[in-house]
UniProtKB/TrEMBL annotation:
<keyword id="KW-0802">TPR repeat</keyword>
<dbReference type="InterPro" id="IPR019734">
    <property type="entry name" value="TPR_rpt"/>
</dbReference>
<dbReference type="Pfam" id="PF13424">
    <property type="entry name" value="TPR_12"/>
</dbReference>
<keyword id="KW-0812">Transmembrane</keyword>
<keyword id="KW-0472">Membrane</keyword>
<feature type="repeat" description="TPR">
    <location>
        <begin position="192"/>
        <end position="225"/>
    </location>
</feature>
<feature type="transmembrane region" description="Helical">
    <location>
        <begin position="380"/>
        <end position="401"/>
    </location>
</feature>
<dbReference type="InterPro" id="IPR011990">
    <property type="entry name" value="TPR-like_helical_dom_sf"/>
</dbReference>
<dbReference type="Pfam" id="PF13181">
    <property type="entry name" value="TPR_8"/>
</dbReference>
<keyword id="KW-1133">Transmembrane helix</keyword>
<dbReference type="Pfam" id="PF06580">
    <property type="entry name" value="His_kinase"/>
</dbReference>
<dbReference type="InterPro" id="IPR050640">
    <property type="entry name" value="Bact_2-comp_sensor_kinase"/>
</dbReference>
<feature type="repeat" description="TPR">
    <location>
        <begin position="232"/>
        <end position="265"/>
    </location>
</feature>
<dbReference type="InterPro" id="IPR010559">
    <property type="entry name" value="Sig_transdc_His_kin_internal"/>
</dbReference>
<feature type="domain" description="Signal transduction histidine kinase internal region">
    <location>
        <begin position="415"/>
        <end position="493"/>
    </location>
</feature>
<dbReference type="InterPro" id="IPR036890">
    <property type="entry name" value="HATPase_C_sf"/>
</dbReference>
<protein>
    <submittedName>
        <fullName>Tetratricopeptide repeat-containing protein</fullName>
    </submittedName>
</protein>
Amino acid sequence: MILKNKSFWRLGFAISLLLGFTACKKQDSIRPGIEKRLSVLDSTRLTRPEKSLSELDSLLQNSKDLNDKERALLLFNKGEALYLNDKYLEAFNTQQQSHKLFVELKDGYNEARSLITLSGAALHMGDIETSQRYALEALELSRSIGDKRIEGKAYNQLFKLHFRLKDYQEALSYIQLTDSLYTIEADTTSLISIKGNTASVYLKLKDYNKALASYSEAMALSQTKRDPKTLVSVLNNIGYTYMEAGEYESSEKFLRGAITLNKNIKAINAAPYKGLGSLFLLKAQNDSAEVNFNKALAIYRANKDMKEEIDVRDKLIAISIMSGDYTKALNHQVVRDSLQLNVNHLEKNRLLNFANVNYEVKRKETEIQHQKEINRRNTWLLISTVVLFIFLLIIAAFSIYNTKLRAANRASKLEQRLLRVQMNPHFIFNTLAAIQNIILDGNPIKSSNHIAKFSKLIRQNFDYVRKESISLDKEMEMVANYIETQQLRFNNAFTYSIEIEGIDDPSSVMLPPMLLQPFIENAIEYGLKGKKEGGELLIKIEKNGKDLSFVISDNGVGRSAKAKDEKITEELHATSVFLERLKMRKKGEEKTFVIEDLFDTDNNPAGTKVFFKLKIQ
């Protein structure tokens, strides 16, 4: 009887082991239906990204009893789809979930794949350290499992990272390792991309012969693969390389070849036209340059590529100014400024949505978990708790969103006011008139230098107005550029000097942009402008501990004298905008602001002095 019981016990134990093994196999396997859906979605991920993401979400939320392997692969594919469609934060969060599951499943191959995407997403978001950590983990894992293709992808990711850091020699070593691994795999499509990346590094290193050699290899591979679209891209890159090397005839040949091939395959591509425009501009053939830039502009406008359109319009503005067509230049500038505002608006919205996207991801995860709890417990108490919790979250989210939106609107209005103060139309047209006089006097070199300075000043104003802070050396560079442009207007009737004390490295000191220019303009327009000669403008900056003091003084006719002829309001002095900017910093700096009238020994007006302090780190 005892032996019989032992036999039953052994049989039961064996059956339990078998069932456990079967359950484990089932847990680690993918059901045919899920596998088929993943295969279909993989082919539509690039062509129909929104549909692909929608179906993946549907599978994740509605498919019952997903095992860990299936959930991990669905999350991985969703992360890949988000990454390929430039939704890097969402891709990063989703891939972290899939990576965790792959680690638990001990699936080294897919774990390494998820690490590659995590590294790429982190790099796009500017987190260099995290990107490098994930890339090195992927490299180590790929070596341990012996997968050369993933090892090549890890090296390629390290290449992108070092290229972003402008460490071109290190980037070159990684792309060469990638090249060697993909050559073994005989992956023509990937090899073309690798050859292009190799050429881009040589281009940065100014080694044009090696860059052209790499592009030639890419061109030969494209011809072998019979991929005309890729071949167009390669031809265009070769044209740009020859242009940078100063071989204009060869550059034109390849750029025109790209245009011809585009026509043959009925493709619309603006890059070769933009390249020809740049080439003719370098050759001082402004009419031909303008024709090609306009062709590129039409394509970019049709594709709604605002960033490229801004770049092309900048070139057209320069051409119009050089040809003396200031009306056309101004028309391009107006459109360009409108586009820039749209780009800025989209960028701000993207940054503001980062937090909301993170919240949405967490909220969806919480909802899924809560739904499972509701199904298991089936109690109204838990349902009420979940509903109340979500309601409170929504109220909090709307409150935070409204607060951020109000802050963004206030910042945008202040930015527009600041830009109007910095670049008033009288200054722009008077400067253009002064440059025109130099051109009429027959001094092309001098006029070209002043056009370059004036264009740089306009660019600095539009670029810096969007920034919260810039370094002191950049602020001083812009101030010097502005004063020298004003000296041109007034035939050098005054001199200026900039004194910086107690600061060893001006590039390490950060301050709000364009604080000084309005007061410098007042000193020139309402003080030094009234002096025929001997005008002096002094800008003194001194660091004392954590305080940075500023003094702007002139020996002009003084505010009191000038006010008899002109009514100078606080708005003309731009002090209201200035003080509002200081108040937004919430450091009490506005209390240090003083405008002082200067007098000589006979108590006659002898200039004006502006003083204020900033708190720095």
